[in-house]
Amino acid sequence: MRGAHTDDLAIDLARALLIPGNPVRNIHATSELNPWRNNVSIFLSEIAAHYPDTLTALCNIAAYLDTHGAPIDYRRRRTAFTDVDLTEAQFAQICLRADANPGRGARLLHARRHLFALLTGADLFNRRHQMAFANPHERGHYHLFQQQMTSTLRAELHRHATDLLAAAGIDEPVTWSPPGQCVAGLKLPGREPDDIDLNALHQMVIVDGTSSRSVARRLGVTVEHVRYASQQLHRLPPQRAPNSKPRISKLRARAEQLLTREFFQREHVAAGKNLATLATETGFSRWMLHEHARAAGVKIVTRKIKERVKVTRALRGDRIDPQWLREQAGTLHRANTDIAAELGLSHETIRRYRRDYGIPSRPTGGHSHVVSNLRHPNLPRDIRLAVEGQRGGWQRLHRFQQMIAYPSMNTAAAALGLHTQNLNLQIQRLETDIGGQLLQRAPHRYAPMVPTRRGQRLLDHLKQPAIRELLDRYADANARPKCGPYKRSTSDNTTSSVNDAPPSVAVSR
Predict the structure, then answer these.
(1) Where do the HTH lysR-type domain residues begin and end (predicted)?
(2) Domain span at 157
(3) Does residue 162 belong to any structural domain of this protein?
(4) Structural domain includes residue 286
(5) Are 144 and 85 in contact (CB under 8 A)?
(6) Please, which residues have CB within 8 angstroms of residue 44's CB and are 6 or more apart in sequence?
(7) Domain count of the chain?
(8) Do 404 and 484 share a domain, yes or no?
(9) Are 420 and 410 in contact (CB under 8 A)?
(10) Which residue among 302, 329, 362 closes a domain?
(11) In this predicted model, which residue has the larger pLDDT, 123 or 87?
(12) Which of 15, 92, 318, 377 has the most CB atoms lying inside 10 A of its own CB?
């Protein structure tokens, strides 16, 4: 019997409450709720045979109602609410506040049925009601609507039900049920709904999207238990796509509040901002701005480029200190990309700030490369001579640090995937830039390499954490494509490109 005909069971139990102490026949006592079914007596007899406490529970509830009454007069409500007043516009506003999708007419019908059952407690299978199900498919869709209803939408519909009661002059709570002590200690069919693990139910229903029947089988309860407990779960609105109806509705509602005639008079007519600038500042499309301007009676003026009012970022509110930007871009010669990475902005944003502040940009070409134009006033003198204004300086320092770990230049070139002549040329260029000898030349290329005193001091500087960070960041920034007779060793792969790490402000400044 467990889980079978649960809807009929709920109907029959509600009608059974009208039988105790009623002098008239059952068919007349219960006709106000639903037409009498001939097998109701058979059903009540069968359930009493298996669970005798069921009749005791019905009598206890009936006695409580006779003694204390109920705060809700459902007879008056069924007379007042033969239908539910919920228009399409009202439902759209409810969904807008709840961040829910109003959908098509079917969702509006399900919302009206939900309100009707909430207010009147009526049976939606009873064809006497206008909100009754037309077929079993509508019942399934209605249960799915209730199960997927978000907590905010449920609260908004409950608020609308309260407003409907107030409009009808009914001062009553929306719902009510007798106290639990009426059935305390009785052995009734099925499990207590409060015994269901809500955490496990949340995982299966909301996170995993498991059907109600599968959840009922896993938890050992009926589908009605799952539906009842699912209404107690906190269900958040799903993530919406930018072109979804709820997102568009919210955008339009915000546009109605912001894009007024006063807004266009102030921002477009007085300040001279065009649609592109307004679209960037407000987040609305040009089409939406144009439509609201036309609705507000403001004509959009298209000016020539020379006549347009340039609104600099200094007027919009500074986000970057001009003095700091001049120091970074003018004195330290940092590139726009490097500064943008530090501030979390785009390259184009930094370019516009430099334009607004009158900071000249560097010429294009190899001499304006981001790494070679950086200035490092806090670094040792030899390292500054090797990297400042020298393209490939960090790579040559890295080669010098790598090769010193090998017994000879020939062995180092083979391990690094270079020709011996090329490696020798890199070291010679490094010595020329620094202005001193770094290696003690051996009589032949297989002799062990020994750094000079200045070369050893340079190696010690390269081991410092701050300098090692810069070395790892910029060593491959100007490197040519890897080519040569040898494979690149794994030790050379430890270096990272300039794009792999954020800029170090403490060292570069």
Answers:
(1) 408-449
(2) 78-167
(3) yes
(4) yes
(5) no
(6) 12, 16, 55
(7) 5
(8) yes
(9) yes
(10) 362
(11) 87
(12) 15
Q: What is the largest CA-CA distance in the chain?
A: 126
* Percent helix / strand / coil, the chain, rounded to 5: 55, 0, 40
**What CA–CA distance (Å, rounded) separates 390 from 367?**
9
Do 502 and 412 lie in a common domain?
A: yes
Phi and psi, residue 489, nearest 5°:
-75, 160
The identity of residue 287, as a single letter, is W
Backbone dihedral region for residue 109 (phi beyond 0: left; psi -120 to 50: alpha; all else: beta): alpha
Residues written for the chain: 509
Q: What SS3 state is found at 473?
A: helix
The pair of three-digit structure tokens given for residue 234, joined into one six-digit string: 């906190």
Question: CA 432 to CA 258: how far, in whole Å?
Answer: 65
Whether 85 is in a domain gets the answer: yes
The CA distance from 391 to 397, in Å, is 12
Last residue of a domain, one of 167, 196, 230: 167
Is the whole model's pTM more than 0.85, yes or no?
A: no
Task: Tell which phi-psi region holds residue 21, choosing left (phi > 0), alpha (psi between -120 and 50) or beta.
Answer: left
Residue 450, strand partner residues = 440
- Is 399 found in the same domain as 423? yes
Q: For the chain, report the end-to-end CA distance as a whole number of angstroms.
A: 80
DSSP code at position 127 = T
In a domain, 268, yes or no: yes
SS3 81: coil
